[in-house]
């Protein structure tokens, strides 16, 4: 087998991905497909950490616009990430992948508390870890949580699985003329306010020299190909 480009990854998934074509809630069929993609990465020998958003259930910033207290809405969003994490854990275990969910907010009946040393130990034992509950604090997105946890677990890269094939100069779902970038610098992303991850997450990755790869997780086999070094999607690096 070819040498792996990345030995330890943090895969960031949006909650909307888990909703599938329904656009809301959880699609068990989509959870299974995602689990099979992650399983293929683990079988190659890559250590896998996952962070998944909760946008298929609730987003704190959108709920605030509609009149809800932002702090309360953000905590509901954290609970939504735990729902998604347990859904994905169930799908992974059905694929015979040993998985642990760790959460930044206490919910002991469903998940372990997030403790960095415990997360590292699970990875060393070959388990897939799903880190839920965001950072445990309101006003921080799951993008920021993903960047923070990736740094903490000493991941080689943040892989952001989306519905599009990388980063474009404009929305490719609205503009057929949208141009995809193969590579970008952190400075370019920040300067042009490109929609990759939020500014805090991008800055964290920049300061810690942690590359970000944005790719279409819906393309079967794309995760495996990235691990083998193929140029897929868009890479953001120093």
What can you tell me about this protein's structure?
The chain has 238 residues and is α/β, with parallel strands linked by helices. The mean pLDDT is 93. The strands form two sheets. It has a nine-stranded mixed sheet, sandwiched between helices. It has helices at residues 15-19, 28-43, 60-65, 70-94, 116-124, 142-152, 186-192, 199-207, 222-227; strands at residues 8-13, 47-52, 99-103, 112-113, 128-132, 157-162, 167-168, 180-181, 183-185, 212-216, 234-237. Helix 6 runs parallel beside helix 8 and helix 7 packs antiparallel against helix 8 (199-207). The chain has a single domain (8-237), classed as Carbamate kinase.
CATH topology (fold) name: Carbamate kinase
Which CATH class is shown? Alpha Beta
- β-sheet strand percentage: 15-25%
Order of helices and strands: EHHEHHEEHEHEEEEHHEHE
CATH superfamily: Acetylglutamate kinase-like
Widest sheet: strand order? 4-3-5-2-1-6-10-11-9
Tally of DSSP β-strands: 11
CATH architecture, by name, is 3-Layer(aba) Sandwich
Q: What's the quick description here?
A:
The chain is α/β, with parallel strands linked by helices and 238 residues long. It has helices at 15-19, 28-43, 60-65, 70-94, 116-124, 142-152, 186-192, 199-207, 222-227; strands at 8-13, 47-52, 99-103, 112-113, 128-132, 157-162, 167-168, 180-181, 183-185, 212-216, 234-237.
Describe the secondary-structure layout.
Elements: E1 8-13, H1 15-19, H2 28-43, E2 47-52, H3 60-65, H4 70-94, E3 99-103, E4 112-113, H5 116-124, E5 128-132, H6 142-152, E6 157-162, E7 167-168, E8 180-181, E9 183-185, H7 186-192, H8 199-207, E10 212-216, H9 222-227, E11 234-237
Parallel strand pairs: 1-2, 1-6, 2-5, 3-4, 3-5, 6-10, 9-11
Antiparallel strand pairs: 7-8, 10-11
Helix pairs in contact: 2-4, 6-8, 7-8
